[in-house]
Amino acid sequence: MHVLDLIRPSSSRDALSDSPLGVVMKGALAGFAGTLALSVAVKGAQLLQSFSGENSEQDSEEQEAWTGIGAGQALAGGQVQAPFLDQSTEIFVQKVATGLFGASLSGGARRTAGMATHFLYGSFWGAVYGLIQSSLRLPPASHGLLYGLIVWLIGPATLVPAMHIMPPPQKQGVRKLLMVVGFHVAYGLGLGLTFDAFTQQERRG
User: Fold this and answer.
1) Which partner for 167 in 31, 94, 108, 171 could form a disulfide, CB atoms 3.0-4.6 Å apart?
2) Of 23-27, 85-89, 184-188, which range is least confident?
């Protein structure tokens, strides 16, 4: 059974699947899948670096020293960089909690809220992709790849450095820059192919 069938009555399935709401729902689910692909790519890169010994001495020291971000660091307004991309949302949620509520989150709360934010953000961009793809109907793999690069350009290349969560691309180093771009390519491909699979399944149904 299609996952969207669980949340709509059978009499309205065809109408909803082609409506803006249906497209947004499919896009958000595909965005979740794309975020999962990005997360797997991040963990895979971490494991490969660990097993191959490719981590630089600086990278190893940063990872060992990373314990999260407290309210004091968030309030300081300076650059706070997590050792790896999947930890950057912890910095974001602590900055929001401190800036809006004056709160310091525990390590567990930071990780949980950071993970939720990570997948919500990916799902949001998936919903936008769904609206675009349903109108343009571009080849899913190439469109997904291009869309992943656009998400990288808007987020890690522009907005994230502006929030002092990570350095701008020109200061990240070639290896880290290529890895971050590659993770977003994985996101875009996962998103595009999953959305296309949803669409093809509805057509066959």
Assistant:
1) 171
2) 85-89
